[in-house]
Request: fold
Amino acid sequence: MGKSNFTPATGLFLPGIVFIVFLILKLTGSISWSWWWVTSPLWIVAALCVVAIAISTCYVVHQVRRNNKNYR
Reply:
C-alpha cells in the first residue's frame, strides 16, 4: 500500500481567533460589550450549524416521503 497523505486539520478557525481577540479586549477593558457579543463568534457558528442540520434533515425527510409515495 502507498503512503497516506492524510493530515488532520490543526489550529484555530476564524471564529475562534475572533473570539480570542474579543475576549482579550473585554478582559483588558478596551471594550465594554456584553458577554453575549464577546462570545458571539462561537454561538453564531453553532447556530448556523444547527440551522444547516435542520435544513438537511427536512430535505432528506421530504425526499424519503416523496420516494415512498411513488411506490404506493
Notes: The chain has one domain: 14-70.
